[in-house]
Structure prediction request, 672 residues.
Amino acid sequence: MDNQAYWRANLRLLSILLTLWFMLSFGFGILLVEPLNQFRIGGFKLGFWIAQQGAIYFFVILIFVYAALMKRIDRQHGVADD
Amino acid sequence: MSVELLTYLFVGATFALYIGIAVWTRAGSTKDFYVAGGGVHPIANGMATAADWMSAASFISMAGIIAFMGYDGTVYLMGWTGGYVLLALLLAPYLRKFGEFTVPDFFGSRYYGNAARSVAVVCLILISFTYVAGQMRGVGIVFSKFIGVEISTGVIVGMAVVFVYAVLGGMKGITYTQVAQYVVMIFAYLVPAIFISLLITDNPIPQLGWGDAVNDGSGESVLDRLDNTLIALGFDAYTEGAKSTLDVFAITMALMIGTAGLPHVIVRFFTVPRVSDARISAGWALIFIALLYTTAPAVGAFARLNFIDTVHGQEYNYVPDWFKTWEDVGLIAWTDKNADGVIEYAPGAPFAGKPEFTGELTDAGSRAIANAPSDNRNEVYVDRDIMVLANPQIAELPAWVGALVAAGALAAALSTAAGLLLVISTSISHDLMKKTLARPLTDRQELGYARMAAAVAVLIAGYLGINPPGFVAEVVAFAFGLAASSLFPAILLGIFSRSMNREGAIAGMVTGLLFTILYITWFKFIDPASNTAEHWWLGISPEGIGTVGAVINFAVAFLVARAFPEPPAEVQTMIDRIRIPSGVERPHDH
Prediction:
């Protein structure tokens, strides 16, 4: 059982997912909202839609992806809790 | 049946349900009382977390606030959901593995000693009482609006109900009542939302409907219509914000890390059986929250558009009934500035402050007000809460829907109040009495103290609800700012930094907290006149300053930590232990 390798794999996954979290919410929904508003998704301006709907859906997906990938990492390193 | 009778019926039935559940699931041990025995299913915990988290403000006020803020409402939508990503990825699994009862427990163990534990208890109590006063007030307001009793009577009824199920049931009772409260709340929120979406766009799904065309044959989408209408009336476009980008950024971040640092939310994840359950449970919590949070902006947009369409340019004699109903309650007022009998809606307040009704009627038949009119063209005062409360009437739904909304609003307020009261009482009986004062308590005695503390906390919360310190609304910024600048950074460092010692963590928490309190106090209480963007530091509002407080907390913690010895070996062992999921103590069955 190599807990250091496990922790490194965990941190790698966290940094990828948190980068995505930041880009989608703060990046697309706040910092880049104006340029994105020039595109449309149905009756919504894209930036506005991401800020008030899309980001929330994305947060949900992100947590489930994290839970699934983390479970795999747990198993690979023999530290799963089941 | 009259609306009032229906409301009594719905509210009475739901209260009986909550108390029934609490009696059925009452706590038998401190483990039941603090963490529901640690055996709650992740989906049930997700639902309970959603109810715990969504307060009276989320249910009653948020859609209305967004309706009047447009794009700037994003700070609440993203801020109050994105924090769950941080909670799921950075805190919940590790704190579940840690496996004790309270958030201050973590501080006591990780930062070896009662100093850190006590700082955490102080932060927790400050944050939670701030929050709970608003909930009890919310219960009273719902009672007074829907049933027509005094606010204080409503608060007392709410106190009595929470008293029974929080004191008796502890975390275990609260968990299952919160599941029931979530169901009541979400049903009550979605039914009017679906109908108002149908009314305006023919689409039954509000999340899609507000991107559809308005159903008057024009082909113009809801948001384009809203933008054009508002611009024509002299407002900013709905889909573009008025706040600075930096401020939107700071507020959103403060709300996100504040959410992740709220003790009553964190402890919910102590109740699931395993580490992997804590991760997945945060996902379920966010699904249940998202159901309301993705509906709210749609409701806001529909309600604003409908409000303007039916009110602006309308003769008072022909306004719809709901306008007059809510005028009677005092949430709407009209002052006919140009005496033409026609209601005009424009930017700015129609007069300063809340309407003061003289008790007489004007020639047009509206309630006369004593306030001196302001010099803009706007003639309508509208309380933002009616955007949710008046929806059933606006969509011409049967009376029972109004009763359902009342029951839903009460569910939202009570579920959050109970969760807050529980963390307050456990921090007193467990952290203060047992751990800090080192009283040798048996499990039974500790449970007795926990119940007593819960009872006292209910009484104090009720008192604050009846006699609100004039600044209840103002101090919500406090709760998130405090959690963001004190608890969140210290917990995060406790898990992810091996070298963080107690001196660093405590110094960080204290400076982050003091900075945030001082900044908010200055602009909210000491010099409220200067609470404008040009006076704010870097243009960051008091609502967003928690983000800066958190940065200060991290910086001070790292600097101070370097001057003191590393944490002792047993803390290193503990860090190793919480970083791996395997080896959780098995819970007992429910």
